[in-house]
Design a protein that fits this description.
alpha/beta
Amino acid sequence: NVHRGLHWLSETSTEKYENVRIKAANFLGAKSSNEIIYGYGATYLINMVANTWGLSNLKENDEIIISIADHHANIVPWQMVSQRTGAKIKAFNLNYNDEPDIDDLKSLVSDKTKIISVPHVSNVLGSIYPLKEISKIAKSVNSLFFVDGCQGAIHLPVNVTEIGCDFYVFSAHKLYSAGGAGILWAKESILNQMPPFLGGGDMIDNVDIDLSTYADPPYRFEAGTPPIAEIIALGEAISFVENIGMENIRIHEEELLKYFHKQLESIPDLKIYGKSENKSGVISFTMDNAHPHDIATILDQEGIAIRAGHHCAQPLMKYYNIPSTARASIGIYSSKKDADELVKGLNKVKKLLK
């Protein structure tokens, strides 16, 4: 275990574990490793912020603004907090190009807006949110700005200082690492004002029977035995992508996206959701007379793995009046050959389900 023992194994484990905090801070452009909080994934960490900062700062008729294209992990925690505080949730829409409608966002903000929480990249559409512009909108009404970076940190260079956000979160398993770990970055000044989320070992300063005092951040928010191996693995994953270069990854994926789109558009009756020129590595689509689950099943028989469903974005599916989509994802390992194989598989789907 980390932070517990004075023997060699514990000391070595602690050193490796804490070195990742420094790596993550550099990876995100943070000013201090004290601004890096470990957790069991982005969902856990969003819930942590909602239940610590949210319950401490939100009150009746305050406003939380999210996007229609948010993942459920950035919707449900805020709903739960709104039900306990009386704060209201508003969602801004998309424009004709499947991009965030910033004019709609501007129409929603007011002096009651306390936090704006958006994805860096839509996990369904691939649309990239203009974070710097949204940051300015948030600051204009003294609102905090939260970014769900699960689909951002894996595809794009991230610098939280340049973005101007107050929170940024991502999951390890999206960044070519193991499941069960995640990173929250938050401004140190905000963390210092937030109460702990869970109680237990390692998050305390002094414990008496009737009262405890708590450790300074980041340890205040890391109760109990943490995901040690998963965090250390995440550090290796950060080194892996940094050795390739996030800019190089972005260039590779942009080239592939154009090729994937071109190939898929050759298939009659296939509709792509997410038409923005400024998008990242996911392509969602539907085909006439073929349910996404059937598409995924037939493609699986051809050795092609895609995802089918609502992608934990049911409000977005309702916005488009569809139950689900099929979704192909692009990573550093993807190639033009994958696009060709996908098209070949989709032509088989078309033939079988004609």
